[in-house]
Specification:
The chain is an alpha+beta fold and 189 residues long. The protein has 5 helices and 6 strands, in the order E-E-E-H-E-E-H-E-H-H-H. Helix content is 31%, strand content 19%. It is globular and about 35 Å long.
Length: 189
């Protein structure tokens, strides 16, 4: 006997929250943000010998990142790197102006409109990863991570497809940058 209950398409119950509880993102601050292409498809360019070669989609995203401070004078992109299937940003936002989610949504939307018009093609995953940068040491580690990310593409979590929340947390806290799930790599305590 078949169950006649309607199928639920509510995926929100299966999604884990990706924002810090009890933090008011309208307070501004400095953030590390990562957003990925839809299905992590490598549509933004390629990496050869640690050098990023952007294709037209990657160039469009880079131009939107560069133009964003003109669009929002209270937002500064302090550092960025575009990888084949994701982008990392250090974003500073003045207090009580706008939220990080708005900034990322606008970047995604403007790039999508520029590349595809309004034809419903999905370029981006629905959400993004963020981290509130709490001090100058963390800022320096994240800056270095972004700077060296193309050199580490072969072990990058977005390249390997292994999802591990500890990976980014280790970067923020100054621990080893190797993937925690890799038992062949020594881990720092």
């Amino acid at each position: 006997m078949q169950d006649n209950k309607p199928v639920s398409w509510d995926v929100s119950a299966a999604r884990k929250p990706n924002r810090l509880k009890n933090y008011d993102y309208a307070n501004g601050g400095c953030f590390f943000a990562t957003f990925c292409t839809h299905n992590r498809e490598r549509i933004l360019g390629s990496i050869t010998d640690g050098f990023v070669s952007l294709n037209p989609a990657g160039i469009a995203l880079q131009e939107q990142i560069e133009e964003l401070p003109g669009f929002y004078n209270d937002v500064k992109i302090e550092r960025s790197v575009i990888m084949p299937n994701h982008a990392h940003l250090i974003v500073s936002i003045e207090p009580r102006t706008r939220k990080l989610s708005t900034v990322v949504q606008v970047l995604k939307s403007l790039t999508t409109m520029r590349l595809t018009g309004n034809n419903g093609i999905l370029l981006w995953q629905r959400s993004f990863h963020d981290h509130i940068i709490r001090d100058e040491d963390e800022y320096a580690r994240i800056w270095e991570y972004i700077e060296n990310n193309p050199l580490k593409w072969e072990e990058d979590i977005e390249n390997t497809g292994k999802q591990d929340d500890e990976y980014y947390e280790n970067i923020f806290r100054g621990r080893s940058r190797t993937k925690p799930s890799d038992p062949t790599r020594p881990q720092n305590s």
